[in-house]
Amino acid sequence: MNTDFINLKEENLSLEHLCCIIRSKKLHPGVEAKRQWLAERLKEGHVFRKLDARGTVFIEYAPLETAWVPITGGNYYYLYCLWVSGSFKGKGYGKSLMEYCLADARAKGKSGVCMLGAQKQKAWLSDQSFAKKFGFETVDTTGNGYDLLALSFDGTIPKFPENVKNPEIESKDLTVFYDMQCPFVYQTVETLRRFCVEQNVPASFLQVDTLEKAKGLPCVFNNWGVFYKGRFETVNLLDVSQLKRILKLK
């Protein structure tokens, strides 16, 4: 088992691959957008830790106060993503990464670590059953299938704001909120935007490009949120077939 891990820093950010989409020569626009996004977040205490290997083995978390999610609470870490895939699964890497995050939180005097979960596991969320093995518990719910999980060290707990628990917007058009944290977002937005133009589907793709916008979002958010007919649909990135199901198109 390779135990060499790397934390991305300003000095190595341009040199290291970002795990989700690995390119050797041609630059990928989604990866470069993520790299630019990370360049600012690292200054705020954001942590991206990955295995020193050519694969998808990483954890990403940040102080809740500067995490781009609409969750209230202080002195927590927010765990965006913990992902181990392919031939690296089943070798203890996920456990090592989670233990690193929890140890880092304790060393920095944090009150705990929290993450977004769902009552029905979503494809684009970290595995909450895995987190519960470390003591994470559901501390708040939205009422529409999403949970806030937390491992508290001192008894305090974070919460969802009320606007997240009643996720509605005035516009009835397809509305997608997104930021550039995930390398897959760039290409997903371009694909869905093109489809909507071709099918004459009224749609708004709204980039969340500041912390203030992220904190004020009307829905749970982990870099992506979809509304249709004024109602919240999902945090999952969509392909065209999935979007058709939401729009009820054949």
Describe the structure.
There is one protein chain. With 250 residues, the protein is of the alpha+beta class. It has 2 domains: 5-160, Gcn5-related N-acetyltransferase (GNAT) (Aminopeptidase, 3-Layer(aba) Sandwich), CATH 3.40.630.30; 164-247, Glutaredoxin (3-Layer(aba) Sandwich). It has helices spanning 29-41, 93-107, 128-132, 162-165, 183-198, 211-215, 240-247; strands at residues 5-7, 47-51, 57-63, 76-84, 112-118, 137-141, 146-152, 174-178, 203-207, 224-228, 231-234. The chain has a 7-stranded mixed beta sheet with strand order 1-2-3-4-5-7-6. A 4-stranded mixed beta sheet has the order 9-8-10-11, with helices on one face.
Give a quick precis of the structure:
This protein has helices at residues 29-41, 93-107, 128-132, 162-165, 183-198, 211-215, 240-247, and strands at residues 5-7, 47-51, 57-63, 76-84, 112-118, 137-141, 146-152, 174-178, 203-207, 224-228, 231-234. Strands 1-2-3-4-5-7-6 form a seven-stranded mixed β-sheet. The protein contains seven helices and eleven strands.
CATH class of the largest domain: Alpha Beta
The helix/strand order is EHEEEHEHEEHEHEHEEH
Overall pLDDT: 94
Number of domains: 2
CATH A-level architecture of the largest domain: 3-Layer(aba) Sandwich
Largest sheet: 7 strands, mixed
pLDDT below 50 for ≥5 consecutive residues: which ranges? none
Rounded to the nearest angstrom, the radius of gyration is: 18 Å
